[in-house]
Design a protein that fits this description.
This protein has 347 residues and is mainly β. The chain contains two helices and 26 strands.
Length: 347
């Protein structure tokens, strides 16, 4: 890891200067990092999928992480398309008046459509007044339906709820909505058959303000869960459950996480991407390697700094592709990057 850190420092300084595709040699492998979007604004919170032989990367674009100079928050949703992972073009640039559209997450539905779910935050005088989930669909990756509000049944006890990500297993999609308000913090597992209407399946009782949650499934049907916590000791949570996913084995992870995603390789190895908080204001986006038992270790540090993370992970051939965002040379701004790492280097 010491040699990797030295390599990372060199790549970081070059990356933010030229903004081109760069390759770095580490030991016996080479990996590349490419800036795929930067309009001088703040682009963040990525997702990455393959759909009908092409690659799609989604993210939010706004003035800053939340507010502009007038105290308004009206982030837009951008989706890029690529045939080869090198050349990218926008296929969606969507916003809603008066709404801060955030954290767009891509997935593919059982009937073969591209699904985009995101949160809509409503502010007044920089105060969050409410949150509403929205969803869009595309059959060809080019034309998307209009944003449609999702519905949660029953309605949670507060009006600040965020269905952060949906993962499909067979014909059923699952997602965890987090919320906060007069009723306190809530973390609720839902299921859906159409991506629009969601029925409550399980309510979790976690302390420490549990929020962003990623779900994945093993080949034998186990549901795995990674939960971010932002109060108390802030340590992430790892969960495992068998169908019908109402009885969970929960354990603490060895670190604080943020904006996390994870995938399960064919051999059962789990690869996760998250924010590392190890160096105060100089956060990094890192790759973790772990097991179903929740034993994780840091194995790769991506060239990143400050406001960073929210990776999308995708295995393409013998490579791990990682989309993520990081602040660059302009304070408060961030660009979107794509890293291509040999699986042999982190497996």
């Amino acid at each position: 890891m010491k040699k990797l850190v030295c390599c990372w420092l060199t790549l970081l300084s070059l990356l933010f200067v030229c903004g081109q595709t760069l390759k770095a040699q580490e030991g016996k492998f080479t990996y590349s990092v490419q800036k795929i979007w930067d309009r001088g604004t703040h682009a963040a919170f990525t997702s990455l999928v393959e759909f009908k032989g092409k690659y799609y990367c989604s993210f939010r674009e706004g003035f800053s992480h939340i507010f502009d100079e007038n105290g308004d928050a009206e982030g837009r949703i951008i989706v890029l398309e690529s045939k080869n992972g090198k050349s990218w073009k926008p296929v969606l640039d969507e916003g809603i008046d008066g709404i801060d559209c955030r954290d767009p997450k891509l997935c593919v539905t059982p009937d073969g459509r591209l699904m985009l779910i995101f949160g809509g935050s409503m502010y007044r005088n920089r105060m969050l007044m409410g949150q509403q989930g929205y969803v869009m669909f595309s059959s060809d990756g080019k034309t998307f339906t209009e944003p449609e509000k999702i519905s949660l049944n029953p309605d949670p006890a507060n009006d600040r709820n965020w269905m952060w990500r949906v993962t499909w297993n067979g014909n059923t999609g699952y997602g965890v909505s987090y919320g906060f308000g007069p009723a306190g913090y809530t973390l609720i597992l839902y299921k859906t058959g159409d991506g629009i209407h969601y029925d409550q399946l399980k309510t979790f009782d976690f302390d420490g303000f549990p929020n962003e949650t990623t779900l994945r499934f093993t080949p034998d049907g186990k549901m795995l869960m990674m939960v971010r916590r932002d109060e108390g000791d802030r340590i992430g949570l790892w969960g495992v459950a068998d169908p019908p996913y109402t009885d969970w084995d929960i354990k603490r992870m060895p670190l604080q996480i943020g904006g996390q995603d994870f995938i399960i390789l064919e051999d059962g190895t789990i690869l996760a991407g998250t924010r590392s908080y190890a160096i105060g204001n100089h956060c990094k986006t890192v790759i973790l390697r772990g097991t179903i038992e929740g034993d994780f270790e840091e194995v790769f540090v991506l060239p990143s700094d400050g406001d960073t993370s929210y990776p999308g992970l995708l295995v393409v051939g013998k490579e791990l592709w990682v989309s993520y965002y990081s602040t660059a040379s302009v304070p408060g701004k961030a660009a979107i990057y794509l890293a291509r790492i040999p699986l042999s280097a982190i497996r």
